[in-house]
């Protein structure tokens, strides 16, 4: 896992240095993100979903993880109300505190800690616990910021316009068929999927900004405490009380629940006109903290 974290650090640092040296601008960054979201990640989702071994235990783990993550967001909402924080700050904290960077950051760490079999499960986990719920809540968050109206039509359009969701559906349909696709046909897809992680981490590095941390460090620490401490602590308590010990499937869930806020949630917050500085600083600082916090959480198991 330490080697995986080292690789993550290197790719993010390369992206951040490229930004500082102005080797990559907004135009190049947009091209990278377009390639990532429309080609590399869908290929990774399709390949991982088709080859993943799924059972009821996995979906139960997803459900428990989702409830723990959402509970972390609700706790942050309550804390924000108690301290009488601004409305935009409370919404930003509770929304971003409920969804972690389970794919871009969680996938390579799980792959390094538990192996490729669990990395394939992470791809489906990400859609169940992060991707689809964000697609449902994004129109609501945008409507709270006065940038649109909440409707089931908006939710449906957002889901079926997502290449990641469509790749997941196609893989599940083909997986249900009695005829298996030969592995040789997946070789180009696997090559394309292998570019997803380094490109995603590089793009995160390009988008990172440490300047806003100074201006919003108090709500940032509060948000990260709820997302990276309260939510995984809830999962640890549930697993120890109900199951007695951790197996590798629950360790995968713990890594994912302990992830910092996801980049896409921050993008939605910024688009809605909420607390943009908090969103940016939480993503940037959360990634740095995760390199220490995630190994510590795993030590408990």
TrEMBL record:
GO biological process, alphabetically ordered: transmembrane transport
Record membrane topology: Multi-pass membrane protein
Sequence intervals crossing the membrane: 5-24, 31-50, 56-78, 90-110, 122-142, 163-181, 193-210, 222-246, 252-271, 278-300
Cleaved signal peptide residues: none
Key word Cell inner membrane present: no
A single GO cellular-component term on record: plasma membrane
Origin: domain of life: Bacteria
Localization terms from the record: Cell membrane
Keywords, comma-separated and alphabetical: Cell membrane, Membrane, Transmembrane, Transmembrane helix, Transport
InterPro entries noted in UniProt: Mem_transp_PIN-like, Na+/solute_symporter_sf
Main location: membrane
UniProt key word Protein biosynthesis: no
Family to which this protein belongs: Belongs to the auxin efflux carrier (TC 2.A.69) family.
Name used for this protein in its record: AEC family transporter
Organism: Helicobacter jaachi
